Amino acid sequence: MAGDSVGFRAPRGTTDVLPPESSLRDALVRSALDSFGRAGYEPVETPAFEHTELFQRGVGEASEVVSKQMYTWADGGGRSLTLRPEGTAPVVRAVLEHGLERGPLPVKLSYAESMWRRERPQKGRYRQFFQVGIEAIGSGRPELDAEVIEIGTRFLAAAGVAPGLSLNSIGHDSESCRRGYLALLKKFLEEIAGSLAPDDRARVATNPLRTFDSKEPQTSAALAAAPLITDHLCDDCRAHFVSVQRLLTDLSVDFTLEPRLVRGLDYYTRTAFEWFAGGLGSQNAVGGGGRYDGLSEALGGPSLPGIGFALGLDRIIMARAEPAEEPPGRVAVYLVALGDDARREALMLATALRVAGVGADLDFAARSMKGQMKDAARSGARWAVILGSEELRAREATVRDLRSGEQQRVPFAELTARLAA
Length: 421
Ligand code: HAM
Prior knowledge:
The chain is an alpha+beta fold and 421 residues long. The protein has helices at 21-37, 52-60, 64-68, 88-97, 142-158, 178-191, 198-201, 203-206, 217-222, 235-250, 295-298, 313-319, 340-355, 369-379, 389-394, 412-420, and strands spanning 42-43, 49-51, 72-74, 80-83, 107-116, 128-137, 164-169, 256-257, 269-276, 285-291, 306-312, 333-337, 360-362, 383-387, 396-401, 407-411. The longest helix is centred in the first third of the chain and has 17 residues, at 21-37. It binds histidyl-adenosine monophosphate. Residues 86-88, 117, 119, 124-126, 129, 131, 133, 135, 264-265, 285-290, 292, 308-310, 312, 314-315 line the site of histidyl-adenosine monophosphate. Histidyl-adenosine monophosphate is lined by residues 86-88, 117, 119, 124-126, 129, 131, 133, 135, 264-265, 285-290, 292, 308-310, 312, 314-315.
């Protein structure tokens, strides 16, 4: 069996991305960053690891991501470091560290990076996974919420995923808004604690909102009569939420109001949303995001509202409809050469083609003519450029169109110009 003789395997929950999927991923990442770029979001890169405290303060110690899923190690000198489990807290940290908030606002950034969470691996859930996302920092306007959600929705559609969009507002952290609601919810949960699944009972005290995230049917049933955050928003949060809904409708973005949608990270305020796709089993969220108006302050910065999303690339690839067209070949030209002199010529011609911007590959195994023609077909190239002893003498190549089978002789000197056309 393939791989039987290999002593090492990739760690559980990680994947090797191999061709041809690697090209598909690469194309998706580029098109994501391009489409985000067209709305003014510029790429940012932050380190793969950060001080652990960033996530404790930013994402929240009560969240599962921080309490259970981080890859953390002591780096000596009393420093605790953690592999980034998500991108928002690092991006806000970078904005504050470099004073970007002193420039024009909002600061609009995009990223395409690996994240790490020690979760139980299953279909669509890995310990190293890849996200593309955007963050818009420095404006609390509802138009920004609508822009961000529209950008994600449109990209997912272009990527071949037709997700549902769930939308909610979880208010902001004050007595007149979420804190008041949480007190009500806690009281309700304590009254029905006996009907909750045992694991969920423990969350009532630490993170009552998260009980809505439970996948236990027993808990979902018990929560049917729970008070809902959207009935307890303060006037400002309610007005903001209404505006966001109106703007999304104006932008023809379909959404479903989901008052039980709570996100797994504690920095969210007001708008929270998630995109869901079919065919993924229980890990059906292809992306999610929301506002995080208090995150900058939680990290010691000024008041700086923000909103963003991240999409899980691994899940997008699983959820997308099969591409209608064959993916383009790796190279446009495959050089078939017989004999050492022809191989030397083939290497020079391939290099000249590449310099001229034409993808070219050739045989490195000294295979037979038949074998090389098979390799040419497998490479997805449009043209096979054949060099035998006769061609070498005439300083002409036989160029075969691998689609139509037609072939003609072309002088070496004209080859690049002809194939680049
Ligand atoms: P999140 O909902 O934790 O949000 O992750 C966003 C997406 O990343 C998920 O919807 C899913 O597609 C993918 N994802 C998460 N965990 C895994 C995993 N273990 N394996 C595979 N895919 C996974 C955030 O990370 C926020 N930082 C999003 C955000 C940006 N909020 C505001 N700005």
